[in-house]
Design brief:
This protein has 16 helices and eleven strands. The two termini are about 30 Å apart. The chain is α/β, with parallel strands linked by helices.
């Protein structure tokens, strides 16, 4: 279940209260927990977090991933008793995570300013659609809305079709990741000053941060990036190419790498052909070049093409699904997938802990709590001495 070396993780000894729901808040908690923090998740009695029921297939298992390394404590935050319990636990915590609509904590008598009076070193990670301030702050915001406003959705898909969804909840997980990064920075600041602070992570801003030069390009030249399917305009060759038994991704969009690809194709002269010899020339003839490469790749199986690309030192790879990952020896060697015992499923395999730290590696130390509030007694005894 663990990474096998018995190390507790870089954040061992850090206590976190997670009051998030669905994806963004809980994913932030998952990241901190993977790095060794103790995560106490406050869940509504009986119903629990809705993530317990999310996922695909006949037996959804998303909860097993997003709630690993966590303890479940039942607390009705809409009641005075639940709020009082939350305040007691937060007074003992290093970090509080929440992803409710701005103002909700204040309405529940859990104003971060008041919480920090009782616990000055407290770091409060607040994940929301639009941030804690500004004219849109009170609007409801899900990850997909943040992806749209941040510019992601508008450039995903093909130009003759509506914007496409990536396939995972990238807006939520990006905001959670930035929330986690902010918490780590805040812990460093606290180690020097003793002072906690608020980490304000907005969904749309987390998406905006990874939008490369889209804003700068518009500022500098009025250029707007558009939907272009599987290619990036002017960057060639970099695409998924047909084989006899499927598709294979090749990225040879650099002069030296393209020369190696041309040699592997048996067409070394392409590297010095003025039509393809430079980055700009290849970009200007992107469709033409993709067609030429596709005519060559479709004569081979994926395995045959992969062997040629490995030998030539050309960045390339198969387009994986989960079944492919299970069979891949590199995933096994890197422990990219870990298998946990599970009371309902017997065992569940999921992604491991990343990134890998050499001295204090993270780990999956305990499976997700199956029952709402199953750890309440244990946590209250350890944290509050009850």
């Amino acid at each position: 279940m663990t990474n096998g070396d018995g190390k507790a993780g870089a954040l061992h000894g850090i206590r976190v209260v997670e009051m998030g729901q669905l994806i963004a808040g809980p994913f932030c908690g998952q990241l901190l927990g993977d790095m060794g923090a103790e995560i106490v998740k406050l869940e509504p009695p009986e119903t629990g977090d809705q993530m317990r029921h999310w996922g695909q297939g006949d037996r959804p298992s998303w909860w097993r991933v997003i709630a690993r390394n966590k303890y479940s404590v039942a607390a009705d935050l809409r009641s005075e008793a639940g709020q009082a319990l939350a305040r007691e636990l937060i007074a003992k915590a290093d970090i509080l995570i929440e992803n409710f609509r701005p103002g909700t904590l204040e309405k529940w008598n859990l104003d971060p300013a008041e919480l920090r009076k009782a616990n000055p070193g407290l770091i409060v990670v607040r994940v929301s659609g639009y941030g804690q301030t500004g004219p849109y702050s009170q609007r409801a915001g899900f990850g997909g809305i943040g992806e749209a406003m941040g510019g992601w959705r508008g450039i995903v898909g093909y130009p003759d079709r509506p914007p496409a969804r990536m396939g995972v909840s990238i807006g939520d997980t990006l905001a959670a990741t930035y929330g986690c990064m902010g918490a780590l920075a805040a812990l460093h600041h606290r180690s020097r000053t003793g002072e906690g602070q608020i980490v304000d992570s907005a969904l749309y801003e987390a998406v905006l941060q990874v939008m490369e030069s889209t804003v700068a390009d518009y500022s500098a030249s009025g250029t707007k990036r558009r939907r272009t399917g599987s290619t990036l305009p002017g960057i060639a060759p970099s695409n998924v190419y047909p084989c006899r038994d499927g598709e294979y991704l090749i990225g040879a969009n650099q002069d030296g790498v393209f020369a190696r690809l041309a040699a592997a194709m048996g067409r070394p002269e392409l590297a010095s052909d003025e039509r393809y010899a430079t980055h700009r020339a290849r970009g200007a003839r992107q469709e033409e070049l993709d067609a030429l490469i596709g005519d060559w790749t479709r004569t081979m199986t994926i395995a045959e093409l992969e062997a040629k690309m490995i030998e030539a030192g050309v960045p390339a790879g198969r387009v994986y699904d989960a079944e492919d990952m299970f069979a891949d020896p590199h995933f096994a060697a890197r422990e990219a997938l870990v298998t946990l015992p599970d009371a309902e499923f017997g065992e569940v395999t999921m992604q491991g802990v990343f990134p890998k730290l050499s001295a204090t590696p993270g780990s999956v130390r305990r499976p997700a709590p199956l029952e709402v509030g199953q750890d309440t007694e244990e946590v209250l005894k350890r944290w509050l001495g009850r």
